[in-house]
Fold:
Amino acid sequence: MQPRIEAGVLGATGMVGQHFIRFLANHPWFQVTWVGASDRSAGKKYSEATAWRLGGTMPAAVADLTVEECKPGKGAPKLVFSATDASVATEIEQSFAKAGHTVVSNSRNHRMEADVPLLVPEVNPEHLGVLPLQKQNRGWSGQIVTNPNCSTIVLAMALAPLKPFGIERTLVTTMQAISGAGYPGVASMDINANVIPFIGSEEEKMESETQKILGAFDGAAFNAHPMAVSAQCNRVPVVDGHLVAVSVQLAAKAGEAELIGAMNAFRGAPQERGLPSAPAQPVIYMSDRDRPQPRRDVERENGMVVFTGRMRKCPVFDFKFLALGHNTVRGAAGAAVLNAELMHSEGIL
Amino acid sequence: MQPRIEAGVLGATGMVGQHFIRFLANHPWFQVTWVGASDRSAGKKYSEATAWRLGGTMPAAVADLTVEECKPGKGAPKLVFSATDASVATEIEQSFAKAGHTVVSNSRNHRMEADVPLLVPEVNPEHLGVLPLQKQNRGWSGQIVTNPNCSTIVLAMALAPLKPFGIERTLVTTMQAISGAGYPGVASMDINANVIPFIGSEEEKMESETQKILGAFDGAAFNAHPMAVSAQCNRVPVVDGHLVAVSVQLAAKAGEAELIGAMNAFRGAPQERGLPSAPAQPVIYMSDRDRPQPRRDVERENGMVVFTGRMRKCPVFDFKFLALGHNTVRGAAGAAVLNAELMHSEGIL
Amino acid sequence: MQPRIEAGVLGATGMVGQHFIRFLANHPWFQVTWVGASDRSAGKKYSEATAWRLGGTMPAAVADLTVEECKPGKGAPKLVFSATDASVATEIEQSFAKAGHTVVSNSRNHRMEADVPLLVPEVNPEHLGVLPLQKQNRGWSGQIVTNPNCSTIVLAMALAPLKPFGIERTLVTTMQAISGAGYPGVASMDINANVIPFIGSEEEKMESETQKILGAFDGAAFNAHPMAVSAQCNRVPVVDGHLVAVSVQLAAKAGEAELIGAMNAFRGAPQERGLPSAPAQPVIYMSDRDRPQPRRDVERENGMVVFTGRMRKCPVFDFKFLALGHNTVRGAAGAAVLNAELMHSEGIL
Amino acid sequence: MQPRIEAGVLGATGMVGQHFIRFLANHPWFQVTWVGASDRSAGKKYSEATAWRLGGTMPAAVADLTVEECKPGKGAPKLVFSATDASVATEIEQSFAKAGHTVVSNSRNHRMEADVPLLVPEVNPEHLGVLPLQKQNRGWSGQIVTNPNCSTIVLAMALAPLKPFGIERTLVTTMQAISGAGYPGVASMDINANVIPFIGSEEEKMESETQKILGAFDGAAFNAHPMAVSAQCNRVPVVDGHLVAVSVQLAAKAGEAELIGAMNAFRGAPQERGLPSAPAQPVIYMSDRDRPQPRRDVERENGMVVFTGRMRKCPVFDFKFLALGHNTVRGAAGAAVLNAELMHSEGIL
Structure:
C-alpha cells in the first residue's frame, strides 16, 4: 500500500471541519496530519479543542493532533481542505494559496470568482482548466478550488443529466435540513414543529451557482448556462438532507421515461476513473410514489448520491420532480474530498 | 337575542366533525342540535361515541346529544354541515339534498361538479347563482354547497387579490401540516424528522379547484380561470397550517408594493356584510423577512386569515411569495361555516 | 375603573421579558409603563430594541416605550418585575430593592436566600412574613420576592395537596420543553428527534427549592420540608410545558381516590381572594389514561393550572402520577404576576 | 465456509419481521430461506407482500421468497424466529414448537410462563436449563425461547452489572421511541412536539420481566429477583432508542467509580464465546455530562450495546443514572438472533 497523501483541515474544530475529519477518517488516499483553527484553539490537542457534535466518536488518529493557527508556515501539508467560516475564509484561503498550498474549499467566498472553479466532478471537471489562469492572475504558487453550496449541488446534479434536453427554465422550492446551518445553527424554538421560510442568501446562491456549474469553460472564461433559475428556500425540522421540488422547461420534446433513463445512466469522470469517494451511480431515480425522503434515504450510498423521484408532467412547464442530497456529505465534506480526488487523478494536486 | 338556527353535523365523531363541533361551539347564528355518524356510533351519546382528539375539552352542549345515523328522516334540521368521509359522502350528501336539506359540505366529492358551487365567500360569492340550476337538474328540494380542499383555499385566497393583474401561470410547492390528514392520519414513523413528498390526489385538487374558484359563473355554467396551475405537495412535521411557496406570472406590469397593497386591501362579501366568522382583513401581508411561519402565525385571527409574505421578484416568472392558512379552520370547518353564513345573509339557507 | 398600578420590567427585551410583556398586556391591576434592558438597548423604542419571538404581535401599548438602563433612578415605578439574566440579576435586583422598589423576580439568584420568600401564592403565602426581616437585615427600603424555577413549580403545586398525607420521599423525572431554555436556547441540532438528558443545575434547583416552598416559616426563618427529593431532568422536543413523572412515599395510608380528591379540592389564597390571574382550580386531575400531555393541555386555563393524571400504586413507593405545567406562564411570568397580585391583596406592594 | 443454518421468520412482512430480515441479511451462521405471514400475504413473493418501511432497500436474497402461511408443515426449517403479533402468537408459536421447531420469539405471549426462558445471553444464559422441562411439560418435540420487551432489556442489561452490589429497589422512567410501537404505530397527530405519558401494559412488563431476567433458575423453576421495580413509561418524538432514567437502592456500600467500573467490565457468554452478533462490550458507560442521547448514540456498535451515563448520587436512593438501548435491534430482532446464537453455541438449536 502506497503512503497516503498528507492533508490539513482549516477550521477543523467547527461543525463542517468535523464533517471533514469524519469523512476522511479511513480515506485510502488522504490522511489528515494537520488541523488548523482559531487562535483560541491553537496549541491544544484536537480532542481538547473540539466539542464533537457528530454521531459516534472522534476518530482516534486525529484526536491527538495539535491544533495550529490557520496561517501558512505552521507546518501545514500542501493539500488543505478549507472548512473556514465565511467571515475569515477569504483571507485565510488566499494566504494559503499564495504560499503554495492547494486549497480545496467548502466556503462560499471564492465560488463565484471568474478564475475559481466551482467544481462538481461528475458535471464540470473541465472547469479545472481555469487553474493556470488563476495562478497567473493572482501570482499564486498554490490554487483554490471550491464546491457548491449544499442546496445548489442537489439541484446541479439532478439537472446535469437533463442538459442534453436543453434546460430553459427551472423553478425550485427547497426543504432544507437543520444541519445545513452548522452549530448551534437554527434555534429549536424557531424550527420545532415549524417551517422557517427564509435562509439568508441561499436563494441567490442556488440561482447563480447552478448557472456557473452547468455553464461551459471556454479555455479563458466561464460562461454561465443561459437557463433562468428561481429558488425558494425553506428550513424544515429534518436532521440531514435537502429535498428540492423542481419544475423544468426543456427545449427538446421528451417523455418521463427518457428523463428518468438519462438520470440513471448519468456518469462522469469520478465513475470512469473509479475515484474512492465516487458513488457507482451518482443520480439514482427512485420509482416509489413517495420517495425520496430525507430521513429514509439520505444515508444510503455513503451520502454521495443524489436521489430523484416523482418525475411527472408539469401543467405549467414540461416536467416536475424531486431531488434529495446529503447536505453535509455530498453538499460539503464529501464534495470537497471528491474534488481533491479528481485533482489527484489529473496530477494537479 | 334571536333564537339560533339549528344545525346538524354529518360525520360528527370524526376529526373533521370534531373541528365543526368546536368551531360552532359559541356561534351566534347556528346551534348544533343534531349529530350524525356511522351505524356503529348511532344511539350512543356523542361523548361516548367520540374520542376527542382536539385540544381542550368537548363542548358541553354537544356531549349529551344522541348520535343518529347519517340518514334523512332521523330528525336532522334543515341545515347540515357535512364532515363525512369521501368514501360515503356522495350518497349521504345527495340523500340529504334530495330530502330538502341544505348540505354545506367539506367533502371533496361534489366540488368539481358542474352545478355545485365551490365557494370561497370572499372570492366567488356569485357562484351561489348555480343553485337553482342544481335543484332543477337534480330534482332536489335541498342543495349542496362545498368548500375547497385545505391547501387549495390558501392558494385561492392569496391569488384572488392578484386577479386584476392578470394571472397567467402559477407554480406552487406546499409544505402541509399533519392535521390535514385526519386521524390517525400520517404515521409518526413516516413523518418524524422527515418530509413525505406525496399526498394522494392533492396536486390534482389544487390545480383544478383553483381554476374553478377563480373562474366566472356566467349564469349557466362555471368557466375555469384560464391560468395554468402546477402544484407539488409535501407533508412536513408541523401540527397545523399549510405553507405554500408561490411563483406567479402576471399579464400586467406591477411592482411588489402594488401586489402587497392589493393583498392587504382585499375585501369581499363577508367583510361587507360583517358575517360572524369573517376576519376583518382576509389576507394579511407580513413584512418580516422570515414570516409567515406555521407554528407562530397559524392560530392568529381565529385561523380565518391567509397570511402572505416575502413578495419578491422571481427570475423565471414575475413574482414569488409565501402564503399560509389554517388547514382545519379556514381550510375546513371555518370555511364551511362561513359558506353557511354567506348563504344565510342571502336568504338561501 | 381605578387607575392601574404602574409596573416596570427589568430585562424586558429578552425572552422572559417578552413573556412578562405579553402576560401583562391586558392586566386589570398592573400596567407596564417602564421597560429596562442592557446598555445596548437603552434609548431605543421597545419595538426597535426587541426581536419579538412569541406568537402573535407585540402589544401596542409597550411598543413605543423607551428602553431605559436597568438602574434605579431612571424613572422606574415602585413595582418592577425582574426578568434579568442570572449573570446580572444579583446586582440589579439588589440595587432596585435598596432604592425602595418592590422587585418581583423570576431570576434564580435570590431564591434560596434565608430572608427571601420563594413564593407560590396557593402554597406558602405566609412566607411573605419574612419581608420585614429582609428589609431590616439588608437595610433596604424596598424588597425582593421570587418565584420558583419552571420545573420546580410544577412539582411543588402537585405535591402541595398531598402535604396532609405526610410526604416522606419523592423521586421525579422531568421531560421539559425547549422554551424553558430561553432564546436561542437549545440548538435544533441537539434536540431534533432527540432527548437531551441534562439541564445544568436544574436537578439541584428542583430538589432544594421544593423543600423550601413546602417548608414552614416560623416567624424568623424558613424550615425546609424534611422530605427527600431526587430529580432527573431531561429536555424533550416539545415547545411549551414541563411534564413530570412523580413517585411519592407518604406517611399516611391513603387510596388513589383520596389523593385525587385532595388535588381537585386544593385551593389557596389566590382563589379565596379572587386574584385576577388565579385559576379557579389550581390543580386539575385528568382522568383519561394518557393525559396530561404537553401539546394538548398546556394552553388550557391560561396556562396557570397544573394538570395531574395517572394516579396509581407504585410498587416501590406508595403512589406514582404525572404533573404538567406551563413553564413560561405558571413557571415564569404568570407566577411572578400572581405573586405581585398576592402582595397587593395584602397591601405590601 | 460452512453452509449456513436455514431459518424462517414468522410474521415476516410486518415491521418487526422486517427488522429480522434486515438484521439477518448478512448473518454468518443463519440464512433466511422461509418467510411466513398471514393468509392475505401467503402465495405472494415477499417483495410483493411487503411494504418495506425501513431505511435502505429490501435485501435481495429475501425479495423472491414465496410467503407461506404461518403453519407448520409448510416447509419451514427447524429454526424459526417469531415476529408474530401478540393477538396470534400464542397459537402459532405453540403449533410450531409442538411440530418440532425451535421458536426464537420476540412476542410477549410466552415470556412470563414458568417453563419458558426469558433470555438475555449476557445476563441469564443458565435460564436455558428450563428447556427440557418445557418439552416434558408440554409434550413438545420443539421449544420456545423468548427475549424481553424492548424497554425491559435496556433496564435489565444496565442493572445486571450492579447485581453484585445487591439491588434492593429501582424506580425508572422511560422515554421511548416511536419505532417501539410498530407500524403505523403512534399517530403523528398524537406525538408531534408532544409526549404521550402512557404505553399500554409497558409498565407491568418492565416490572415483572426485569425480576424474572435477573432472577435465578434453580434447576426446576425461576425465582424472581426480590428487588422492587417501578416503571413510568412515556412515548417521546424520537425515531429509535429507548432512554431510561434509573434510580437504584443497593445493599452494599459503593461509590460511583465502582458502579461505572462494573458496567464497563461486564461481560457474558456471548463475549466469551465470540457470538457473531455479540458486542465486544455489552454495556458502555459514557462520561460526557449529557450522554447517552438517543439520536446520537443509538446506532453505534450495530445497536447491540446498552449505553449508560450520568452516574451520580441520588438524594432518595443510592444512585441515579441513565441507560439507552436500540429498541428494534437490542430490544427485538438483534436480541432474538443473539438468543439463537447462544443456543447454537450450546448445541441446543
